[in-house]
């Protein structure tokens, strides 16, 4: 798959080349999809966080325009995140009010920028691939399960929730689906089915496919919603998008809030700031890694620059009265699946959020949530497709088991806890593989005499200690043993001690030990060298 090269050397955008390229016709329709997906998510997350609805939209706007501009990622989309809702809800009270809380958001932004400057983003290089693949598949499954209630017209939980438990109505993901099925609105179902049909079949009609399918979905949804009015299929207000109505410029500017800088000495403000900075940075790095996995052009996003961009976004969001933000995998996945090619899509979606709030809020409020659910249902299907499970199975159990564990853990807990559990299982398999490969083993026979050669690996760490100990202990009596360290750049001190002790005691078994290029001590390789090698 080809892409017109429009990026500058530092990951920015060459506007002249961009407008002469073929990317614009892909980025603009994709930005519409992201806008439609982000709109209810921003509102839902603000509602669940106990913050003003405007704060959720403001965060989406800043995430699109500010972070989109500064980020080195071409496809990642930032905005308010479901993973931060509990932190925000609890912290507004703990810090002493919303103005104190947004001061914590400002400080968190500064801390994230510092993390970027000290190159903390390199931690993303240590996320095992099957865990990231599992996280993507889990998000797909969550999208399908969470959007089904919206597709049938009933969901008491807020739009954008990714957790298994749903405190708002005492349900969990499964029981919420069952509750929704008992309260079906057939008008919403019809709109969802028509929207799915358009999303699937419209792009296949070449002569008319220039009109973006999501735009047609929204138009069809609004028309059907109006047609059902006054019938048994009529939609209720809670089954439509609902953004705040702004009637004048003074009313618009009155929605902004300023941080209370007098609270900068409060302990809870700093605790909240550090919590947001760490959680938001981890979720951002995970999302960035996941987006790079599904990028059809396989570009690698600069992680440290992303932390700087997210920090700047949170700084601006906090100063204006918005919520904390992260790179969000749901919006980013929708962006990729909609065919985006550059960061223009993310920036434009932020502009669309702003313009919709200022100029067409009444029109936006006519969009049924069920037609937007159809867009997310299709995104979820693409993330959790059956072929992905088959692909991971064929890669072996050491890849498949961490993949499946991550999926189950994310679905039944939340993103960060689930990924943490998946990481533990993934690291177990990495260590298991490491412990099995500390040397090359060869046996040669001359008459009745066996010569056993153990050629040590390039890096022999403490993790290899047990495997080498067991091997040496079980070597046959009366044999000649050669331990060759000529390829080794580093051998751990504990392993050296085992080798030396074995050489001194081997004579009791009639074993003659010869050491080749085994030093008494090895210097630890520089950190940069180890990171590059990893």
From TrEMBL:
Cell compartments where the protein resides: Membrane
Domain STAS: 441-534
GO cellular component labels: membrane
GO biological process: transmembrane transport
Pfam families cross-referenced by the UniProt entry: Sulfate_transp
Membrane topology designation: Multi-pass membrane protein
Broad class of the protein's primary localization: membrane
TM segment ranges: 32-55, 61-89, 101-120, 126-145, 184-203, 215-235, 269-288, 308-330, 351-380, 400-431
Keywords: Membrane, Transmembrane, Transmembrane helix
Designated name of the protein: STAS domain-containing protein
Species this chain originates from: Mucilaginibacter pedocola
Lineage, top ranks: Bacteria, Pseudomonadati, Bacteroidota, Sphingobacteriia, Sphingobacteriales
